[in-house]
Amino acid sequence: MVDIFFKALFKRISKLKINLFSDRLECFYKKFFFLTLFLFSFFYSELCAQSITVKGIVQDSISKDSIPFATIYVKGTSFGTASDYDGTFELTLPFYQDSVWVSSMGYATQVIALPKNKSVVVLKILLSEEFTGDEIVVTPHENPAYRILRSVVDHKNANDKRKLSGYEYETYNRTEIYVNNISDELREKKIMQQVAGVLDSMKGLKDSDGKPMIPVLMSETVSDYYYRTNPTVSKEVIKAVKVEGIGMDDGSLLSQVLGSTFQEYNFYQNYLNILGKDFISPISDSWHIFYEYELIDSMYIDSLWCYEINFKPRQEKDLAFTGTMWIADSTFALRKIDASISREANLNYIDKIFFKQDLLQTSEGAWLPSSLHITLDLQDLGKQVPSMVATFYSNIQDPVVNKPRPNSFFDQRIEVKEDAQERDEAFWNTIYQDTTRKTDPMVYKMIDTLRNLPIIKSYIEILDIAINGYKKVGKVDIGPYLTCYSYNNIEGNRFQLGFRTNTDFSKKVILKGFVGYGARDNRLKYGGAATFILSRKPWTQTGAYYKYDIDQIGAPSERLTNNNLFLALTRWGTLRGPFYSRQVGAFFERDLTKNIMPKLIIRHMWFDPIYNFAAYDSEPTPTNTPELVENFQTTEIIGLLKLSYDEIFLQNGNERISLGGKKWPIATFQYTAGLKGVLKGDYNYHKLQLTIDHSVRFGIIGRTNYQFTIGKIYKPVPYPLIENHIGNQTIFFTTAAFNLMNFFEYSSDQYASIKIKHDLDGLLSNRIPLVKKLKWRFFLTTNVLVGSMSDQNRRLLAPVNSQGESTVSISSLDPLRPYVEVGYGVDNIFKCARVDFIHRVTYRDVPDISKFGIKISFRFII
Q1: Strand pairing partners for 240?
Q2: Whose CB has fewer CB within 10 Å in the chain, the N or C terminal residue?
Q3: d(CA 31, CA 711)
Q4: Residue 570: CB partners within 8 Å, gap ≥ 6?
Q5: Is 7 in a helix, a strand, or coil?
Q6: More confident site: 319 or 543
């Protein structure tokens, strides 16, 4: 190309006629000119021939840990790159440079000299921490980064993608999880011996230190992502899924969790929710309160002049980021950001999280994330336990802005195409034409080999039973194991076996059943249900069930279905208000929109008490002695209406899982009508109840979760049909109960309650050194109940039954005196335990109650 250019130039110059100089002078200038061109051409060729590739790894000089996202650049030019999550980098320079600069937040910048006459230079760069002693800085003016940050905040509305009326794009997401740090001691373990053989046969997968890695998951998805600003709605259509993982039978749920919906990190927001914690953005409106900044350099990034600014938290205990960002000079937009979260953030099992995000400017001025790279380094738990690293990568193509889809298009947040998991190799080869999306086929090969090892299969099966409570046997799951055995005062030793069908049986029909037997009451309990999924979009299902079992007024099973452990515990010991219950029912539900979800239930129930129960069939009067009722039947129609604005649902096989709302409350209305005379129902009545669940962020103070419930029962009915508030006399804490109230202590026919939990999010725990080291977390709780029982319902209470035996006494609250319990506690003990310290504030003079209690609970949390 250079030769062609100079030949054309020679022809043009040779035709010139210079009249201002003599022939000799003219000849001299021509010779000089061509000599100059010759030398320029020679040196230009030499320079081109001296292009140089600099590659290597950046590590901490003391620990030798890899340093991700370190900046390697040539000062004063636009040439530069950043190290990957494993510290490796590669930078190609078009012509020779004498040095490169290497910088990373928290480390001293190094200048590395480059040798001459080498086309490839391999470096191992060891960075040392910056001197952090007392410094004397004389600055006649303010920090120069502050002016830039103020401009960034001033231009937020112009640069934030939320200013667009809508946008859409195709997005590719890849997730990889590897096990590394496999010590020699660990390789000698029985479980690792078979795995070690696979590692030795496949030596291509290495970490930054050259040690072998074991892949346990590779997930790739291709989606179309849509966003509309007014109203704020989004939708992700997953059109291709490729998942291979150890212990993964079905990748559909995983593909939803690892899709774009859950990789949405917008640094223009004041807070970013990461693993359940709210981290303040370095370009938030309160940037000057939480962060320190340093203007490092300015450089070109893709022909755009940018300011390079380092940032770190003013106090390590704050939930904030450390890293570097590049701000565009003309628009003061965030062009690129490398940010990290350290172990100081009090995240379980995680040593560090690294974010690397690039943004591109749309035709309307706002910026969209063009690529995102996240790396999670899990903590090293010792030589006997390997560590783990997870990487998430996504990029977008073909963005379209300010052409929002109609509101009716956003019928569900996440949709998985039916053929998403059936894409062939030709499709994926087309996706891989973008080299940033190409994966290593060896990873898939190794995962497939490992998961077929007998010892791996055995451990995965045990883990699956422990988590899901069922053992998969072909097309049927056997369980749940929590209900296989219990012991109580009515049944004695109770044995139970249940089953449910899985997606291998059918993706439209779900069958369930159980059989139980009590050795003391010598009764067989049993039940079965059939559910038919009529449509997944919109979600539509119908079903019917029949059940004969023992139940309790003080701990009704139908209200504890979301707390399996607590429900199983209530089957032990002394049952509270026990009765034999026979139920038959049918239901139908269909989402009208993604915000409106109604459900209709019709059921008939037989109530056969196993304790001294009696009620009058009508109110006693001086002229009327009502008959005693010692068992009864009810026929009910129940209407449920759920309203939610931004609730997220995932489809896991044949069930739909709710992850709750992100910002708005979720309201559930329930109306129950008792039908006397229908299928021999004994009572007419009406019940109304409203429940609101919500989570609210209060800045650095923390996050509050609350549940508000209000209800009323119209017309007099026996007390088993009114609201019998759930107490808790176990040592375990549950959100379903008032934890210092006795079982069966209070009943109401009109009531209102609120249950509040406030997580302090490190506001106190991060400021106490020992607590911070232990990663404990503090929280506050309050439960308040207001209720009463009408005189009509009180007059239905019979003091004795037909045998003259005293009946169970029923108590109600004073309508002007609420029941209150307050608490405080420590969460994250041993990374799984929670301890609540609870005080009963009112009704402390009641006999046989606990005024103070300590409750424990367990859960896996990050």
Answers
A1: 222
A2: N
A3: 102
A4: 552, 555, 560, 576, 730
A5: helix
A6: 543
Q: Which residue has the tokens 């990487």?
A: 391
Instruction: Identify whether the C-beta of residue 164 lies closer than 8 Å to the C-beta of residue 268.
Output: no
pLDDT tens profile 199-246: 666 555 666 566 667 788 888 889 999 999 988 889 999 998 888 887
Structure token digits, residue 750: 């009109």
Type and span of the H or E element at 447: helix 441-451
What amino acid occupies position 235? K
409 with 235: CB under 8 angstroms? yes
Region 142-162 average pLDDT = 91
User: Mean pLDDT across the chain, nearest whole number?
Assistant: 82
C-alpha–C-alpha distance, residues 644 and 233, integer Å: 12
Helix (H) or strand (E) holding 191: helix 190-201
> Which three-class secondary structure string do you get for 328-378?
ECCCCCEEEEEEEECHHHCCCCEEEEEEEEEEEECCCCCEEEEEEEEEEEE
Q: What is the DSSP letter of 624?
A: B
How far is the C-alpha of 480 from the C-alpha of 463, rounded, in Å?
14
Q: How far is Cα 588 from Cα 598, in angstroms, rounded to an integer?
A: 9
Phi and psi (nearest 5°) for 206?
-130, 150
- Collapsing DSSP states into helix, strand and coil, what is residue 791? helix
Q: Please count the residues of the chain.
A: 862
Window from 135-149, 332-346, 523-537 with minimum mean pLDDT: 135-149
Predicted confidence band of residue 139 (pLDDT cuts 50, 70, 90): very low
**What's the rounded Cα separation, in Å, for the pair 778 and 156?**
35
pLDDT band at 862 (very low <50, low <70, confident <90, very high): low
Q: Which amino acid is at 50?
A: Q
The count of other CB atoms within 10 Å of the CB of residue 312 is 17
Report the chain's C-alpha Rg in angstroms: 34
3-class secondary-structure state, position 639: strand
Those residues with Cβ within 8 angstroms of residue 42's Cβ, 6 or more apart along the chain or in another chain: none
Query: What are the two backbone dihedrals, phi and then psi, of residue 491, each rounded to the nearest 5 degrees?
Result: -95, -15
Q: Tell me the HSE value of 323 on the side-chain side, using a 13 A CA sphere.
A: 24
Alpha helices in 410-525 (DSSP H): 425-431, 441-451, 454-468
**CA–CA separation, 634 and 608 (whole Å):** 12
d(CA 420, CA 221): 9
Q: SS3 of 309, please?
A: strand
Q: Report CA torsion sign: 629, 633, 635, 636.
A: positive
- Number of other residues whose CB lies within 10 A of the CB of residue 623: 5
Rounded-to-integer distance, Cα 286 and Cα 272, Å: 14
Q: Is the pLDDT of residue 337 over 90?
A: yes
Instruction: Determine contact, residues 172/221, Cβ cutoff 8 Å.
Output: yes
For 528-587, give the DSSP string. Answer: EEEEEEEEETTEEEEEEEEEEEEEESSS-GGG-TT-HHHHHHTTSBS-SSEEEEEEEEEE
- CA 212 from chain centre, in angstroms, equals 29
- Helix-, strand-, coil-residue percentages of the chain, each rounded to 5: 20, 45, 35
Sign of CA dihedral 566, 568, 569, 574: positive
* 808 vs 797: CA distance, rounded Å: 9
Half-sphere exposure of 716 (CA within 13 A, CB side): 14
Residues 786, 712: Cα–Cα separation, whole Å: 12
